[in-house]
């Protein structure tokens, strides 16, 4: 059962025609797509619920040979990629290809993180579907994929393998002092639990902040 998710603000975003959303989702209006993305409650709930369904489907086949899991949840993955790429002004083909071809373990971590879109940020919170902070989001996501990482942004950074920005894959972590995020697998696109009066959101990293960022692979 998926809990009702709290909206991140009240701005409504457009939905591309390539995405088949539930008929109950309202027709939205335009918003600037490349900054932090605030979406209405129904859209946030759709993204989160669809990502959770994908993660559960992928976890159900985790014991099968990877060659037998390539097409699992493919339609929903494509729909999510289309919407996320649109919102972040990204290349939809690049994002779709990245999500389709990444390893099963990385897919599970990624879609587990996206399943928390709209969940409120709370300092020191570790309650998926209720409230999270930045490191509890990444911890939750990777635990779903069978990787037990501890809480704490500094600890997660310290215990993962350092990588270059151009090596980053879906599920890798992006850190700067006091905050940790998860890569969507395409340069500079992330999902994270942002502090303040915010919630778990998708985001494009501001180019002026990149010099502060460090990139790590939790798989070692």
What does this structure look like?
- The chain is α+β, with helices and mostly antiparallel strands and about 220 residues long.
- The protein has helices at about 40-60, 75-85, 90-100, 105-115, 135-145, 155-160; strands at about 125, 130, 160-165, 175, 180-185, 190-195, 200-205, 215.
- It has a 6-stranded antiparallel beta sheet with strand order 3-8-4-5-6-7. It has a two-stranded antiparallel sheet with strand order 1-2.
- The longest helix has 20 residues, at about 40-60.
- It is globular, with a radius of gyration of 16 Å.
Keyphrases for this structure?
endopeptidase fold (from Nostoc punctiforme), alpha+beta, six-stranded antiparallel sheet, 220 residues, disordered N terminus
- Give the total of beta strands: 8
Element order: H for helix, E for strand: HHHHEEHHEEEEEE
Structural class: alpha+beta
Distance between the termini: 33 Å
Helix content: 25-40%
Shape: globular
**What about the largest sheet?**
6 strands, antiparallel
Helical run tally: 6
User: What do the pLDDT scores average to?
Assistant: 84
Instruction: Characterize the quaternary organization of these chains.
Output: single chain
CATH 2nd-level architecture = Alpha-Beta Complex
Order of strands, main sheet, comes to 3-8-4-5-6-7
Total domain modules: 1
């Amino acid at each position: 059962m998926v809990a009702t998710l709290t909206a991140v603000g009240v701005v409504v975003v457009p939905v591309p025609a390539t995405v088949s959303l539930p008929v109950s989702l309202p027709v939205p209006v335009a918003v600037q797509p490349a900054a932090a993305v605030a979406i209405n409650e129904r859209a946030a709930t759709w993204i989160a619920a669809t990502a959770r369904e994908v993660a559960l489907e992928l976890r159900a086949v985790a014991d099968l040979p990877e060659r037998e899991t390539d097409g699992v949840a493919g339609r929903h993955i494509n729909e999510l990629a289309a919407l996320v790429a649109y919102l972040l002004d990204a290349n939809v083909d690049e994002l779709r290809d990245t999500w389709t071809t990444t390893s099963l373990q990385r897919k599970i971590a990624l879609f587990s993180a996206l399943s928390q879109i709209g969940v409120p940020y709370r300092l020191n919170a570790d309650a998926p579907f209720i409230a999270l902070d930045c490191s509890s989001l990444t911890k939750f996501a990777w635990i779903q994929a069978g990787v037990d990482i501890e809480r704490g942004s500094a600890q997660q950074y310290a215990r993962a393998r350092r990588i270059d920005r151009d090596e980053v894959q879906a599920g890798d972590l992006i850190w700067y002092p006091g905050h940790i995020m998860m890569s969507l697998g395409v340069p500079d696109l992330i999902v994270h639990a942002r502090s303040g009066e915010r919630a778990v959101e998708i985001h494009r990293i501001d180019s002026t902040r990149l010099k502060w960022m460090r990139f790590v692979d939790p798989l070692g």
